[in-house]
Amino acid sequence: SNGEIKARGALIVLEGLDRSGKTSQSARLLSYLNSLGYPVESWRFPDRDTAVGKMISSYLTNQSQLDDHTIHLLFSANRWEKRSLMEAKLKSGISLIVDRYSYSGVAFSSAKGLDIEWCKAPEVGLLAPDLVMYLNIPPEKAAERGGYGGERYEQLEFQKNVAKYYEMLTDPSWKIINACLPLEDVEKQMKEIVLDCVVSCKKGKPLSHLWL
Ligand code: 2DT
Question: Ligand 1, residues 74, 80, 100, 101: which to mutate, most atoms within 8 A of Cβ?
């Protein structure tokens, strides 16, 4: 008999500056895929609920100080501690919409002056996304949206620098989304791209690993 291959879920990553709309769009994409009957979960990094995540959260809220390399490795460890669960979910057919991933890790740390290759190294071997959508918005425009929450990295000058590093990380497979448009228009662009990706993973596109 033909051993039937179980359809796997898609690993979909949303990247972008603070206030680019990632979190709102994650929620919308989650209910969209749900409404079509695809099993899907919404994840985010950092995952502040784990022990490592609590250290990260304390750093981000300026309750603790850490060396730049140390916090970089904690962000990476926070992805590694979720790696096997991530793989299990995908293999069981669940798609994951992930708000930030290794690209945030590299962009934010290298924006502080760390070597970009050094930043990428601990990410090697994590699951590679099937799709990266970059919510593109000029830093000034994102800042105008207000609601920078006062966390460590939420400052215009720093965000401008992060944008430069995101640009260096961009590769031709990324989908660049114009995040200056109204929420509904952004959502419309993203839905189409996401559905394509979920369908191609279901058809058996193999999982791969970072760094690509
Ligand atoms: P949120 O505001 O999205 O919770 O992000 N960051 C994030 C890093 O510096 N490295 C990483 O690996 C990740 C995932 C981006 C909190 C802040 O943490 C930054 C913003």
Answer: 100
Query: What's the CA-to-centroid distance between 32 and ligand 1, angstroms?
Result: 25
Pocket of ligand 1 contains residue 21 by CB under 6 Å: no
Distances (CA, A) of 91 to 59, 64, 69, 191: 34, 38, 33, 22
- Counting from 1 in the atom list of ligand 1, the atom nearest the Cα of 149 is 2
Q: Is there a domain that residue 136 lies in?
A: yes
**Contact indicator for 192, 201 with CB cutoff of 8 Å:** no
Q: Is 108 in the pocket of ligand 1 (CB under 6 A)?
A: yes
pLDDT tens per residue across span 52-109? 999 999 999 999 999 999 999 999 999 999 999 999 999 999 999 999 999 999 999 9
State the helix-helix crossing angle for 102-111 and 156-169, rounded to 10 degrees: 120
- 173-197 pLDDT, tens digit per residue, is 999 999 999 999 999 999 999 999 9
Residue 1 falls inside a structural domain: no
Predicted TM-score (pTM) of this structure: 0.97
Whole domain around residue 54: which residue ranges? 12-202
Decide if 156 is inside a domain: yes
Number of domains comprising the chain: 1
